[in-house]
Design brief:
The chain is α+β, with helices and mostly antiparallel strands and 137 residues long. It has a domain of 74 residues: Homing endonucleases (Endonuclease I-creI), CATH 3.10.28.10. It is built from four helices and four strands; from the N terminus they run ααββαββα. Strands 1-2-4-3 form a four-stranded antiparallel sheet. The protein is globular and about 50 Å long. It starts with 23 loop residues before the first helix and ends in a 25-residue tail after the last helix.
């Protein structure tokens, strides 16, 4: 019995040194289930933490997600999949993405769940107009 390579991260060499491109059937699968894809990304290369900020002497604490990866291809797939869920994000650096807006964090919480939880809350519905696929015009 032959094995089917399900995801492009399996292969020789370092992920950030080689192309990571999803096949059309994989892109369709992510478009159908973006929450599952986002959960995998954040459970592998992301974190949720309490961000502490002091403004005019007053400290504010709020939840925030960060996603870090050296692969430019993976860093393209992450925002695309967040867009599919309508989650606002920002790039902090070339290899670091942040989700900090209250509604965006709440939606990401619903789709990712804690890393120790195998099945998070049901994902939120996707917007009717999906963003353009990565690497496609």
């Amino acid at each position: 019995m032959s094995t089917v390579r399900q995801t492009p991260q399996h292969g020789p060499g370092k992920k950030h040194d080689r192309p990571i491109v999803l096949a059309d059937w994989q892109l369709s699968l992510v478009e159908s289930h973006p929450g599952d894809f986002v959960r995998g990304l954040f459970h592998s290369d992301g974190c949720r933490f309490a961000n502490r900020v002091t403004v005019r002497g007053k400290e504010y604490v709020y939840p925030r997600y960060m996603f870090v990866n050296e692969s430019t291809d993976i860093m393209g797939l992450c925002p695309w999949s967040l867009d599919l869920l309508g989650i606002a994000w920002r790039m902090n650096r070339r290899n670091c993405l942040s989700v900090a807006r209250r509604d965006a964090v709440a939606t990401l919480d619903q789709n990712t769940g804690p890393k120790s939880c195998p099945h998070p809350h049901p994902p939120t519905p996707t917007p009717t107009q999906p963003p353009t696929r990565p690497g496609r015009s």
